[in-house]
Each structure stands twice: as structure tokens, then as C-alpha cells.
Design brief:
Elements: H1 9-19, H2 28-47, H3 51-58, H4 65-91, H5 105-112, H6 118-136, E1 138-141, E2 156-161, E3 170-175, H7 177-203
Antiparallel strand pairs: 1-2, 2-3
Helix pairs in contact: 1-2, 4-5, 4-6, 4-7, 5-6, 6-7
Length: 209
């Protein structure tokens, strides 16, 4: 299409806005600000016509992402359940909830440290920290972030709000598909180890070192 014949969408929008009777709740200053922003957007796209496409690409993530997230969520839940079951079994009282049995993940790990090897508790704590990004983060395409020493772009980025901060803050965590697969495997392995320790409690095979 000849550029001189292409409709000027932004001018059409501004003309439409200016032709309407202003809403009583919209001041002239706010209307002028909106017009200025629209003109600024037109200037931006004139200088960088691919800006919209890059922004849209950040919101497009792989169709594999829901499956990868689901695997982590399922495996993490199984590991947490195994940890709570172990704590309850070691408490010696099936009718009284053990400390940490159904608490937050951080309290669960704290309680677990008295019942499992330190290395296993540390692995569980690290995996749960990453799980927070998987479950509570906002996912975007990671092509704009390099997460590896080889400089290759990430597959995904998770943006998670920080809690209890004075001002709004967010943490950003880049992930490769392989990272999410490895995290799910880690939770499955942690569950297996916790189940092994539970079996020791039930069948008297000895305490962990």
C-alpha cells in the first residue's frame, strides 16, 4: 500500500476523541494528556515500528509452559505431603497435629530440619523457593533476558511480587525449559527420600544420620 494513501489511525483516533462531548468526569487537562500520549506513541512507532511486536512477543510463551508448570506443582505437592506425613509419624501422636504438618512451606522446612539430614532439608528449601516463582509469578517470554554464561536467551521469565515491602517491588527469575524439568525431578527425588525415611519410622529400619 502506498504510504501516502495509508489511513492515519492515530489522527483518526484523536479526531474522534476531540469530536465527542467530554464526560463531566474528564478534565480538559486529562484529555490533552491522552492526546499527547497518543501522539508520542505515533512518534515512537515511526522511529521503531517493531516496538509493538516486541512487546507482544513477551506475552507469548510456549504452549509447553502449562505442562511444565503443572509437573512442578504436582511434584512439589507430593513432596510437601510426604514431609508432613513424616513429621506426623515421628511425633508419636496420631491424634494431635504435629508442628509443621500443615503449615506454610517455610515452617514445614523449619520443623523438618529436626527429622531429616541437613542436606535434604537444604535441597527442599531451595526447591520450594523456586516453586514460589513457578506458582506465584507472572510468566512472560524470556527472549529478552540472558540467563546463561553462553549468552543464550531464556525460554521464560517469572515476575513475582515481593511481600511486606515498604514500596511495591518485584523479583525476576529467568528459566529454561530444562530448569523446570529439573525442578520437577528434584521434587520427585525429595519425595522418594522422605518416603524412605517414613518407612524407617514405620518399620524400625533405623534413624537417619
Amino acid at each position: 500500500m502506498d504510504e501516502t494513501n495509508e489511513p492515519d489511525l492515530f489522527r483518526q483516533i484523536l479526531g474522534l476523541v476531540a469530536s465527542q462531548d467530554p464526560d463531566p468526569g474528564v478534565t480538559a487537562d486529562r484529555l490533552a494528556e491522552a492526546c499527547a500520549l497518543a501522539e508520542g506513541l505515533q512518534d515512537l512507532l515511526s522511529d521503531d515500528p517493531e516496538a509493538f511486536e516486541r512487546q507482544a512477543a513477551r506475552n507469548r510463551v510456549s504452549e509447553q509452559l502449562p505442562q511444565l508448570i503443572g509437573e512442578v506443582v504436582i511434584a512439589a505437592a507430593r513432596a510437601e505431603d510426604a514431609a508432613g506425613t513424616l513429621l506426623q509419624s515421628r511425633s508419636g501422636d496420631p491424634d494431635r497435629r504435629a508442628v509443621g504438618y500443615d503449615d506454610s512451606s517455610s515452617r514445614l522446612v523449619t520443623a523438618l530440619r529436626d527429622s531429616v539430614p541437613a542436606e535434604l532439608a537444604d535441597r527442599f528449601a531451595s526447591a520450594l523457593k523456586l516453586r514460589h516463582f513457578v506458582v506465584h509469578g507472572v510468566w512472560v517470554n524470556g527472549s529478552f533476558v540472558s540467563s546463561r554464561s553462553d549468552g543464550k536467551p531464556s525460554d521464560f521469565v517469572s515476575l513475582k511480587r515481593r511481600y511486606r515491602t515498604k514500596a511495591p517491588e518485584m523479583d525476576m527469575k529467568p528459566f529454561m525449559k530444562s530448569d523446570l524439568e529439573a525442578l520437577a525431578r528434584e521434587f520427585w527425588e525429595i519425595e522418594d527420600e522422605l518416603e524412605r525415611l517414613h518407612s524407617q519410622v514405620l518399620f524400625g529400619e533405623g534413624e537417619s544420620e
